[in-house]
Amino acid sequence: MSSRSSHSSLAKSESAGAEEMLSLLRQSLKSCKIPGETNFEASTPHVFVILGASGDLAKKKIYPTLWWLYRDRLVPENTIFFGYARSDLTVDQVRAKCEQYMKVKEGEEERYQQFWTLNYYVKGSYDTRRDFELLNQEMTKVGTEKANRIFYLALPPSVFEPVTSNVKKCCMSPGGWTRVIIEKPFGKDSDSSAKLSAHLAGLFKEEEIYRIDHYLGKEMVQNLMSLR
Questions:
Q1: Which residues form the Glucose-6-phosphate dehydrogenase NAD-binding domain (predicted)?
Q2: Helix axes 63-71, 3-31, angle to 10 degrees
């Protein structure tokens, strides 16, 4: 295969991957239902939390996809975004890490700037309750008690248990719904996978847990959310 042909194929696969991610998130947001309501309400505040915000998955896939959705007005305007990780970062530093993957086009600069004004970052460990209490305090400061909260675990499975335990203890939405998104397969074998499944079942209702497929390949196609 020629170099030009190879580059063309790669570009097509990346485009297909981006389209798939956008499609999944669009479907997710349209299908979100709030208890007591029949349809997704664009006016309902949402908080999207990226746990592991300093990692490759966050900067290459999650933040870009959230930006594309915000750009196209496919998330409620009052959605806010929180990054959480052990690294000592500012929002500006997170932005710099993501910049090359965001694909901002001419004429989108003002909208792009608005997107980042809706972002916050909290430094914390994954096994310390006090840090998650701080995250909850920060979310409450800038959000409302009615805000729905979505937690995406962009983390290794080894920390899923302490993270989900701390989310349950400290960060559940007081007035809206809460969703926890994890990638599968998780666990290093069937026993550890079963153990984690049992752990999650002890913390959350089944409808609060979303297990998504993470495809690692040349296309780097990834399903980000499936809230049905």
A1: 49-223
A2: 70
Parallel/antiparallel/unpaired status of strands 119-123 and 148-153? unpaired
Taking the domains of the chain in order of start, what are their residue ranges? Answer: 42-213
Tokens standing for residue 220: 């780097």
Distance between alpha carbon 68 and the CA centroid of its chain, in Å?
A: 13
193, pLDDT greater than 60: yes
Helices (H), 32-153: 56-57, 63-71, 91-98, 109-117, 129-142
For 162, half-sphere exposure in the C-beta direction (CA atoms, 13 angstrom radius) is 13
Place of tokens 């998330």: 75
The CA distance from 196 to 182, in Å, is 11
Predicted confidence (pLDDT) per residue in 123-166, tens digit: 999 999 999 999 999 999 987 788 899 999 999 888 999 999 99
Residue whose structure tokens are 């696969």: 13
User: According to CATH, what is the number of the domain 42-213?
Assistant: 3.40.50.720
**How far is 99 from 17, CA to CA, in rounded Å?**
19
User: Radius of gyration over alpha carbons of the chain, in Å?
Assistant: 18
Cβ partners under 8 Å of residue 213, min gap 6: 183, 184, 223
